[in-house]
Specification:
Blueprint (H helix, E strand, L loop, with lengths): L17 H12 L2 H13 L3 H29 L3 H13 L5 H33 L8 H13 L1 H21 L1 H30 L2 H9 L8 H15 L5 H6 L8 H29 L10 H12 L3 H35 L3 H21 L14 H28 L2 H8 L5 H25 L4
Helix pairs in contact: 1-8, 1-12, 1-14, 2-10, 2-12, 3-4, 3-9, 3-10, 3-12, 3-16, 3-18, 4-5, 5-7, 5-14, 5-15, 5-16, 6-13, 7-8, 7-14, 7-15, 8-12, 8-14, 9-12, 10-16, 10-18, 12-13, 13-14, 14-15, 16-18
The chain binds phenylalanine (PHE).
Length: about 450
């Protein structure tokens, strides 16, 4: 029997309004992925053509999958594992779909373990910025500050610990209470500050070269690995393919439009990434830095600008504060699905569950920390331990998770259920969503994979 969602309620309450949901979802989407990761992987993969493929992936694959995830979450009203099991049974007659939820929960653990390390650097930079250390420091000096931080596992371990404590704190109190208030102020502030920095880049940076790097597509520089990275990053930046959006969708009131919300979130997320690139690359070119240098890119480039700007000490402090908040709201989203799952399946309390899961992730984080110090030369697979973790989750686990979600929403769920959730009836817009979810998104993901492993 196909149950309608009106019969099911979330065990954790609901978002208080549509705006809150948009903010919470964009709080989860906007994070280190936009400001730290997007510029650095765009740099590593040669810029323009990569950015174009990324944008196509976001709108063609990301949008229908995000809608699918929200609708599955709202219909199941449980944590991702139980939602997939429940709906799998209702719609497809098998409990096996819970594997998709399970893989998502594992991805949450893995991602947060290294995410928190980078977020820890952002926290550290609030204090570096406030100390005035960047004032008139040249590119070499700025580089040394970063190496000093990441080269010491004790120092970066402490910042990582602080970030995990902050995240556990909010998740333990319940996402809604902690999160709703925070995102309302932080998201607009972040955009405001990025616009200010954009002004600096336009005047002081090499803006023309930065724009050309980001938007002039040089297809000969795009490798199949670059295409896979663009696809993986589309999933990562939208927080899809791992159940995080499903977990948030479970708290979504029935009358909220999934279509409008997804579209808004995707536009916010994409604008912030592009804005971050437009701030960072002009600075990179003006100071002769290497756009392909890797994970340290923003920590090597932005502080130079802060050091030159009047009031730069304050701007640096506020910027890293906002980056920390952006990372924080994403870290919270990463923890929510494992926590909701343990609470619902074991009947454990929220605080204790959050502490337990937080401790495991915290311990795992040290492997990533050591990738920048003691284990920096220990490379295998795609690079250091940190690189491998990132590759495995973003480029493999999330696209596969997204693929399964699209198949489930497009082929397994009956059209009545999905059109009901999307409140679209059977009109043309619904037809488009269904077509993208059944054919375009899964086929595109498969093509990119086959291309990356050299089959085509
Ligand atoms: N989307 C977040 C970012 O771009 C990362 C994230 C991934 C958060 C998956 C939650 C789930 O920083």
């Amino acid at each position: 029997m196909v149950q309608s969602d009106t019969q099911r309620r979330s065990l954790h309450g609901q978002w208080s309004s549509r705006l809150t949901f948009i903010l919470a979802l964009s709080g989860s989407a906007v994070g280190l992925g936009n400001i730290w990761k997007f510029p650095y992987i765009a740099g590593v993969n040669g810029g323009g053509a990569f950015v174009l493929v990324y944008l196509v992936c976001v709108f063609v694959i990301g949008l229908p999958i995000m809608m699918s995830e929200i609708l599955i979450g709202r219909r199941g009203r449980r944590n991702p594992i139980d939602t997939m099991r429940l709906l799998g049974e209702e719609e497809g007659g098998t409990k096996r779909w819970r594997v998709v939820g399970f893989l998502g929960v594992i991805a949450s653990f893995l991602i947060l373990s290294y995410y928190s390390v980078v977020a820890g650097w952002a926290v550290a930079y609030i204090f570096e910025g406030a100390s005035g250390i960047f004032v008139d420091t040249d590119a070499v000096g700025v580089g040394e500050i970063f190496e000093e931080l990441t080269g010491s596992w004790v120092t970066s371990g402490l910042w990582h610990t602080l970030f995990m404590v902050m995240t556990v704190f909010v998740v333990a109190r319940g996402v809604k209470q902690g999160l709703e208030r925070a995102v309302r102020i932080l998201m607009p502030a972040l955009i405001g500050l990025l616009l200010l920095l954009l002004g600096y880049s336009m005047i002081e940076g090499n803006f023309a070269e930065g724009v050309a790097f980001m938007f002039a597509p040089k297809f000969d520089e795009l490798t199949s690995e670059g295409v896979l990275a663009a696809l993986g990053h589309a999933f990562f930046t939208l927080s899809i393919g791992m159940g995080a959006v499903m977990a948030y969708g479970a708290y979504l009131p029935e009358e909220t439009s999934i279509v409008a919300t997804s579209f808004a979130v995707i536009c916010i997320d994409t604008s912030i990434a592009i804005l971050a690139g437009l701030v960072i690359f002009p600075i990179v070119f003006a100071y002769g830095l290497d756009p392909a240098e890797g994970p340290g890119l923003i920590f090597h480039s932005l502080p130079i600008a802060f050091g030159q700007l009047p009031g730069g000490t304050v701007i640096a402090t506020v910027f890293f504060l906002l980056l920390t908040f952006a990372a924080w709201t994403s870290g919270i989203a990463l923890m929510e699905s494992p926590v909701a799952w343990l609470m619902e399946s074991r009947g454990m309390g929220r605080p204790i569950t959050a502490i337990l899961i937080g401790t495991i992730i915290w311990a795992m984080g040290f492997l990533s920390i050591l990738s920048f110090s003691a284990l920096a030369d220990f490379e295998f697979g795609w690079g250091t331990f940190f690189d491998n973790l990132d590759f495995l989750t973003s480029n493999i686990m999330l696209p596969l998770g997204g693929f399964a979600i699209a198949i489930f929403a497009g082929w397994i769920m009956c059209a009545n259920s999905t059109s009901d959730e999307l409140s679209m009836g059977v009109g043309r817009r619904y037809g488009m969503w269904r077509w993208f979810t059944r054919f375009v998104a899964p086929v595109a993901v498969m093509l990119v994979f086959l291309n990356a492993i050299g089959v085509i």
